[in-house]
Design a protein that fits this description.
37% helix, 5-stranded mixed β-sheet, 5 helices
């Protein structure tokens, strides 16, 4: 599979921009996606196996963590990424610049991993930045769709 990098703004919301830019029709803004993930965590303090999400947070209380993660300039962590996957029911494949052994696929808990159709690819430069990775056919379709929408309005 050939993937193409689509740059995202370096504004603290790069992960959410990468989700938005992936050409699968997500209608929410990056900030709305962030808010949805944080609200999901607030409403669901335990993950799908019953483990409290706060067990994965070190050095701060749960409410402070949620308040920090809600800020638009705050970099996401795996807890927020997992929450967003649950909210938008989307498999996210994170491809690391450090190599394949650092790649991660995150699947919503209510989905059978082997039969999941809706998935996106996101590039990750650890501790620096996320970018959208689009299949070459999606890139052409996305550009075509974007151009036709801008010409109609």
């Amino acid at each position: 599979m050939r993937l193409r990098v689509v740059e995202t703004p370096s504004d603290g919301n790069c992960f959410f921009h990468a989700v938005k830019y992936n050409g699968i029709g997500i209608k929410y803004t990056p900030m709305e996606l962030r808010d949805m993930a944080i609200e999901y965590l607030r409403q669901n303090p335990n993950n799908s196996d019953g483990t409290p999400w706060c067990n994965f947070i070190h050095g701060e209380c749960w409410e402070n963590y949620l308040a920090r993660m809600k800020r638009p300039d705050e970099w996401v962590d795996e807890v927020v990424i997992r929450a967003l996957c649950e909210v938008v029911d989307l498999k996210v494949n994170i491809i690391s610049s450090k190599g394949p052994k650092y790649d991660v696929s995150i699947v919503p808990s209510k989905t059978n991993y082997s039969t999941y159709d809706e998935e996106i690819y996101i590039g990750h430069y650890p501790e620096l930045h996320y970018v959208a990775l689009m299949k070459m056919t999606e890139m052409v379709d996305g550009i075509t769709q974007e151009m036709s929408e801008s010409n109609n309005g």
